[in-house]
Amino acid sequence: MESTTDDQQHTVMFDSDNIQQTGGGTHDSSSRWQKATYDAKSIRQKITFSGRKFDVKTLPVDLYRVYETLKIRSGEEYALTNVFMIRTAIELHRAWHNTLLTAKILQQLKDKFQVRMTWELGVIKLKFHVEDGSHELQYKVPYDYDSEYQDLYMKIAVAYLDGHMTVHQALIYQSDTKRGKHTAKSGLFIRDFPGRLLVYPLEAATCAVIFFGGDWYDFGVTALTGFVSGLIEYLLVTIGGSAKLMVDVIVGVSTGLIASLFYRYDGQHTCLPAVFLGTLYWFFYGTAFVVGILEIISGELETGVVRFMAVAVKTFVLSLGTTFGMQIVLKEPKDAWFDYDGNCGNIDLDDQWWRIPLYLLCSASALGQYRFPIVDYWRALSVQLVGYEVQYQVFLFLRTRHPQDLQDTAAANLLGAIGAVVFAAIMSYFVESITYYYHARVLQRRKGKYSPFGEFLYSTCETYVRVTNRLGFGKKNDLVYLEMSEKLRKQREELEDTNHSRTDITLTEEEEMVFLEAVIQAEDLNIWALLMPTLYQLVPGSLIARLWFNTIFLPPLDSECKVIDGTDYNFVKPVQSASHAVFESLLVTAVSLALGTLIGFGVVEYGTYILTKLFCCKNENQQITSDPNASADSIRTINLRKSSRNFFSHTINENNPSSDLYTIDENDPASDSERNTEDTNVNEEAGFDDDNITETNNDLLQPLL
Known about the structure:
Structural class: mainly alpha
Largest sheet: 3 strands, antiparallel
Shape: globular
Radius of gyration: 28 Å
Number of helices: 27
Distance between the termini: 22 Å
Helix content: 55-70%
Strand order of the largest sheet: 2-1-3
């Protein structure tokens, strides 16, 4: 479709290989090209918002005190931006515990809004130095992996960063997110107890069979021990206080006690390692091993080493607690632990048709533990399956070639991680390209009809929203906004009709939050929300548990004896490096997965760059803005900022010696002017208006590149 253009509209023509803009000069055309007309303003810029304010009285006392000081010194907007950054860091740290990526988004916010803040993101403790150290705030933030909140808080930060919402709206949205207002009912059910109790036995039982050599008898025993472990955590967390410190010990004791009872009184048929490791899988922060290695590789040595050691100690506490439970029931716990013959490895997974379905069920339970949105399970399961299958098949292929070393394990983990990262990136590209048609229409970023293919994709997305809501998996607000979008379209037509009396578009307080949720959800699912559960399924959380068990129960001695010359004594050698082999395997697995993750992102980054240069990134095609004379570099910068949030590399100017060459003289008025207009120049180069930054241009570019 082609329509006329005016001061607020421009026409963009694109196909799979080319992006061209009309409005200046002439371009060749082709029958393959689709023509679309975009309005320079989406419906967001047409709405008159109520100006609802964030209630600062809800802030913690120390943060509120800092806010008041900053408000007097630099104004409310600046003070609230500091509050927003601290709250964002805390919740991201709690949700995914990835200091490198949290620091990346904080640095982008700091650079955009010229915030005078530095931070120290430790394993547990966070420190924020506000106003160049005039104030210091410290918080203790424990582990609590949460893919949904990680994705939402990242999207909120990006929406504020890109000018799609005010700081008041961003802070209110954060508070509503914590209250569960932006989570589907199905997600709320498994987010916390008691609904969460259903996930414990499912994950424990499936892990016992698919990972640790258990059979269907062990499946049942592990389901019971898993359910009991969930009940114990539920009880102790409800009590709160110091009771939470006893979770690991009591869970370990209960697991060892129950499994040992089955072993002793049911014919010693239980594979205790499978039951123990399957049950405790929930409590092994296996991802932390890989994240710790990534931090060490990236230069965050202190944080990485502390994280690695902290998780190792936590795992030892669980393992030791399990042995206490064994001692209560069994006379010879060591013999029971090493009683593998006939109890463990009875199922050859290579010959079972249900191996992949069982793995997917296990992965779904892991997604439940990570509080991943059920509506997007299909995406996460696809990434998990690719990583697992690559790892599994490569290991099968290489294990006969490397019977005496760990090169097969290293290669399998390396390629598995690379495959998961690359597949996650490819899937994100296609999903974003498909959902673009839906978001562009419901947010009125595009006028007119799509091509038949575009209309089909829009209808598919709309049907998906309606069906998932009917099944109870989707968010109710998605359906509410879908119905509300038609009303907004009519109101916009009335507003733009000079013969109509409408002068503005206003929404109720509830409608505003529904609309802002639609704007935030237009951002694609953060790739790390997909990768963290995937790495959780690939990492060696159980390997270090085996190391500790072999430390508590020393490996059996070799029966081969050598007579010591001149004596009547024999020399008995232990089984060759049994415990050390497990530790070495842990390091090989953790490091190879970390390297695979880094290499995978490198493949994505440079592969995208090469494909873009080859197929769609000519100079004139970069300028998808309302100003045909705009600089393409600013558009590229905006998109690099988006893509760089997935990577670990980041630079804090205060720690970069080269930044000394560009030190700003605080006494030079010209420097202040340059600093204050930096973002304005970027927006002007990109074709944006300072008071009315459009969503259209950046959002149009992403699905095409």
